[in-house]
Amino acid sequence: MPSDPARTLVVTLATREGGSVTLRADRFRADLQGAGLSEGCYGFAVAASDLPGYRLGVSCVWSDLGLPLPGSPWSSPASPGATFTRGQVRLHVDTPLPGDHRLAGYVFDGSEPHYRVRIGAVCDGNLKDTSVASLYRNLDAHEAGDGFHGFILSLPAPLRMLGSGVDLVDVGRDQILAHLGPRSW
To answer: Is the pTM of this model over 0.85?
Structure first.
């Protein structure tokens, strides 16, 4: 919390099926420390087995403040998704849930394992959303990053409704990483 960097917060994760877990967000995250947010101890993790029904979605609130975390509720993909490779950059996009206006996944640069890609969603030639890929994600076993390469991007409509699809780009390097059409899945 910027106004009180020594204070850690309590979060509550809940599923639609009534499962919930409350825990303190005090785990170290190198990306937060690198961003100058105190010592970076604001992360949290919970085993999926502790949240029955997590595949249908998980909401998360700051219990101390009664506010939802940005991006909540989160959804798990219905299937594995798609992976794209461009040079040393590996982009994985989760299969979007029907009607969801978001794309989630991870992007990892094997030549610079700690580089945080600023990924963008381009629709009809216009940049619609960007995100620094710094959310925690389990990477494939052969990838050696620190695991903070996940992203969530907002789209103007569900992917299946975007006639021309969406280009996913590395904004910092001005490079197209993948094109997803409305029928990509």
So the answer is: no
